[in-house]
Structure formats: C-alpha cells, structure tokens
Amino acid sequence: MLRNVWRAVVASASVLVLFGASARADGPDARRDWNGLYLGLQAGSALIDADWKGPAAVFGVNTFTVHPDGWLFGGHVGYNFQIGPWVFGPELSYSHSTNLRDTVVGPVAALPTDSFDTKIRDLFTATARVGYAMNSWMAYARGGYANSEVTLSGLSGPPAAGVTFNSTERNGGWTIGAGAEVKLTRNVLLGFEYNFVRLENSFATKSGGTFPNIPIHMDLDTDMHTMTGRLSILLN
Predict the structure, then answer these.
(1) Which domains does the chain have, with CATH numbers?
(2) What is the pTM of this model?
C-alpha cells in the first residue's frame, strides 16, 4: 500500500513540475519575486517520542514511552508577502500517514503480556512563515498551531486477561521549524523543511472485553520531529 502511495505522490509531483515548466518564461527579476499564492506537496519522515501516563491501576501502568516513527505525505497552501528581501505569510499544511504506529508488550515487568498500541493518523498545521530571500533562494522560520488524530488502545493479559480499551482524540499543540527553498523556475519551488511538534491530550474511555465499563483515563505527551521535502507552485 505504501508503494502505491509513493507512486501517487510522484505522479502528482510530476504534474506540478509540468505545470511549472509551462508557466511563462523567466524575466530578469522573476526569480527574485516571491509574492503570491503557492501550493504544493510534501513527503518525508517523522521521528516520535510519545509518553503514556496511565491508563489505570487495573493495567498496572504508570508511564512508558513509545516510538510510532514512520512516513508522512500531504499538501500545503500559503501566501507570500514580500518587502525587500523579507518574505512572510500564513500557511496551512496537512499530512497523512498509514504507518505512524507502535505496539509495546509488557512495559511493566509484573504484567509481561499486557499490550498497548499507539497510532497517529495525520498532522495538520496552521503556521506563519518569516523568510529572508537571496535572489532565487530563501531561508525561513515557521511556527504556529499543530493537531493530530491519535488512537490509543490496549489489551490485558493474565491475571485479568481480555480487558480492552480504545480511544481516539485529536491532540492539539504547537510547532516550530525552519526550512529553505530554491526557485527552479519563476513558478516552481523545491524545498526542505524541519519541524518540531509538541502535542498533549487526555483520553477518557471505558474498558471492554472480560471486564467492561471500567473507567480508564490516559494522558499522552508527544514530541515529533518531521523532515520533509517540498515541491510547490508559486502563482504569481
């Protein structure tokens, strides 16, 4: 499935490149002009440390860390305003993932068969960018709001085997990062970006399985490091 996703990303990127190549020819100052609406695609990796707190005494778990590392792919749209070499403006970004997931078994030695699963489905950001342009190059910093859909689930082993839980919430937080872009043509931008994302949320649910309706509460603190390549079209 991941192979098919990458094929779709490559095909979409090819369309963007062809669109950019067909744009009007570069003028003498075209690559210095960063003003305007832009949109594009991004893909890359995410390295994640997620700290569970809970879920409940019945599971005998206090705090443990999981690492649902994997791949992200998605799109972005934003608008650049330029004053001299300074470029600034808002950006919205959404990335989806099929494999940001980690399952740990026996994080507490006394209960070696209890399993806990963490799955992060996506990453949405709403940020402001501030950059400094050097002709066809631009370096920038960005920061703002971040949000992900996270699912936590578990299954107990002996002595109270078969107790389950499952809870899905959107975790809110913040992000800060930096990147660089280069104009391949007047309209086609190629870039690389790093972001640090901090997410926090509480999960409340009830157990199922052999002992249903037990209140379960969990907190999840997530630190995410994303590194993505970007291909954008500047519509100016």
Answers:
(1) 2-24+35-235 (2.40.160.20)
(2) 0.84
